[in-house]
């Protein structure tokens, strides 16, 4: 929160709201929603290392503020006209910033939404673009690719990813980097072994998540998430712990249900 502001007040933005979300001023509502999800997931305070948490809180508040204004047609019109966020919220007498902020924090950790997103994302054009962008950024190093492409799994995706990359290389859409073309078999084997170990640890974490969830939900009527969703969350958690980051940090696109 900005210094001197009441806790229920939105933080003062440090830059243009459209710039905060990385969209143009004529962006469609869907584009704004998609950009918000991407930014919010990346900077969620629970998905970064401890030393970066304060900064992530600050950034998440800024991003949530931008979305709170630009996702509402009336607020957006006022903001476009005045360039002031306080004007945009001026007619919302019952708007509670902290309630809105907490909702955004909570929604980004919804395991069902993650599971739904995974189904839509994998094998999509968006995933292909992300894969080829990661391949270029890593200059053909598949370790870097798997570190970058969200929800990727060496055990499940290696053959599929390589088919996409090989096709792109054949079409001249990607460079045939030496690190990729001449990758030693020993390195591929080591990567798979590491993934197998990771999967076993994720299974252990999933069981712990389920046990913890049952303890918290004891006596409540709320249904439990399917075990598969716990497995997914546990796997992502394990991967992010290994990278020294908070869980889910690599998810960079929509996970909320449309």
Automatic annotation (TrEMBL):
Region Disordered, residue ranges: 185-229
Protein known as: Heat shock protein DnaJ
Organism: Penicillium chermesinum
UniProtKB keywords: Stress response
Compositional bias (Low complexity): 218-227
Keyword Plastid in annotation: no
UniProt key word Nucleotide-binding: no
Name of a matching Pfam family: DnaJ
Domain J per the UniProt entry, residue ranges: 16-83
GO molecular function terms listed in the Swiss-Prot or TrEMBL record: heat shock protein binding
Domain of life: Eukaryota
InterPro entries, sorted: DnaJ_domain, HTH_DNAJC9, J_dom_sf, J_domain-containing_protein
GO CC term, one of those recorded: nucleus
